[in-house]
Amino acid sequence: EPQTLHLVGDFSAPAEFFVTLGVFSFLYAMVALVLYLRFHSLYSENKKVPFADFCVTLCFAFFWLVAAAAWGKGLSDVKAATRPSSLLAAMPVCQGSDVICNPGTTPAMGLANISVVR
């Protein structure tokens, strides 16, 4: 009889934060592009607009750093949850004394590691 095993923990929050920040960064870049190209005189004459642009960009840079750290922590949590020995410990079918479970190989996480570095 097949059984479904669910991982312990919710690892979606760092990924959702990272993607949300990426979407907001893209939208702000589009707004800034319109401001630079369409309202160049406003940007050149008013000194508060470039400063506000700098402050918003600085905030995005800080949150991007936080999001990258959260993404890395989420990845390490997923790695720990999907480690074969952790999965075997969570499977009730492998807890019996008459059952022999082999953990197999560790999953390849190379592309996931690259996603944190980039």
From TrEMBL:
PROSITE patterns linked to this entry: MARVEL
Membrane topology: Multi-pass membrane protein
Statement: the UniProt record of this protein carries the keyword rRNA-binding: no
Name of protein: SYPL2 protein
Entry coiled-coil feature ranges: none
Keywords per UniProt: Glycoprotein, Membrane, Transmembrane, Transmembrane helix
Transmembrane segments: 17-39, 51-71
Residue stretches making up the MARVEL domain: 1-118
PANTHER family noted in UniProt: SYNAPTOPHYSIN, SYNAPTOPHYSIN-LIKE PROTEIN 2
Superkingdom of source: Eukaryota
Cellular localisation: Membrane
Primary residence: membrane
Family membership noted in the UniProt record: Belongs to the synaptophysin/synaptobrevin family.
Pfam families (alphabetical): MARVEL
CC annotations in GO: synaptic vesicle membrane
